[in-house]
Amino acid sequence: MQKKVSNKFYSFVATVLLLAAVSCKKEKQQQPPPVSPTPAMEYFNFNDKEIKAGTGFSVDLNHDGRKDMAFYTLLVGDPIFQVDKLQFLVETNIGTNLPVNNREEIPVLQYGTPISLSDFDDYHWFELSSVMLVQKITSFTQPPLWEGHWKNAVHQYIPYQIVVASKIYSGWFEISVDTLHEKLVLHKAALSKEAGKIIKAGI
Question: Within 10 A of 92 (CB to CB), how many other CB atoms are there?
C-alpha cells in the first residue's frame, strides 16, 4: 500500500514539474525581443529651407564655431557638348564625413535605416567631400534633363559623421528635391550626442 502511494506521489510531482517547465518555456518565447535604446540626439529644424540657383546654406552642427556642412548650387558650362549644368551639391568640412562610392554618389536613405559607423556596401566614409546630388542639364537642341542619384528624393536622408578627438558622432539630414521648381529643400537634421552609437535615419 505504501509503495502505491509513493508512486502516485512521484508521478504527480513529475507532472507538475513538466507543466512548470513547459509554462516557463512558453513565457520565455512570448517575451518581446530587447529594443536597443535610442541615443540622446540633438535636432535641427530648417523650416523647409530652399536652395535655388545662386543660393546656399551652411550649418555648424556641433557648435564648435565652424561650419560642418554646406548646400549650394553651381552653374557649369560645357562648351564641348554645348550644355549648361545647374548642379546642387553638398560639401563637408574637416572632421565631417560623408559615405561616398566610386561613382561619387552618397546613399539615399529611407526613414528608419540604420547608419553604420564603418564603411558599408560600396560606400566609404570620407571627410572634406563635395558631392553632386542632382543636376539640371540644359541643351540648345534637347529638352532640359534632370539627372543624379537624388533626383527623386522626397523626405529622404543623407547620413553623415562628425569626428571629434577620434570619436565618431553620427547624424542625418532630411532633404527633398523639387525638379519642377528647380530647388533643393532642407527639412531637418539630427546629430547624436553620444559617440560611437548606431542611429537610425529620421529618428
Answer: 21
Is residue 105 within 8 A of residue 132, CB to CB? The reply is: no
* CA nearest neighbour of 71 among 94, 95, 54: 54
Residue-wise pLDDT tens digits, 97-111: 999 999 999 999 999
Which residues are CB-contacts of 124 (< 8 A; sequence separation ≥ 6)?
99, 100, 101
> Are 83 and 75 in contact, with CB atoms under 8 Å apart?
no
User: Where in the chain are the domains?
Assistant: 1-31, 41-200
Own/partner pairs, 65-73, CB within 8 angstroms, 24+ separation: 66/93, 67/93, 68/92, 68/93, 68/95, 68/96, 68/160, 68/162, 69/93, 69/96, 69/160, 69/173, 71/184, 71/186
E strand or H helix at 160: strand 156-164
pTM reported for the whole predicted model: 0.80
Q: Cell digits for 134? A: 542632382
The Cα-based distances of 144 to 63, 84, 85 in angstroms read 40, 10, 10
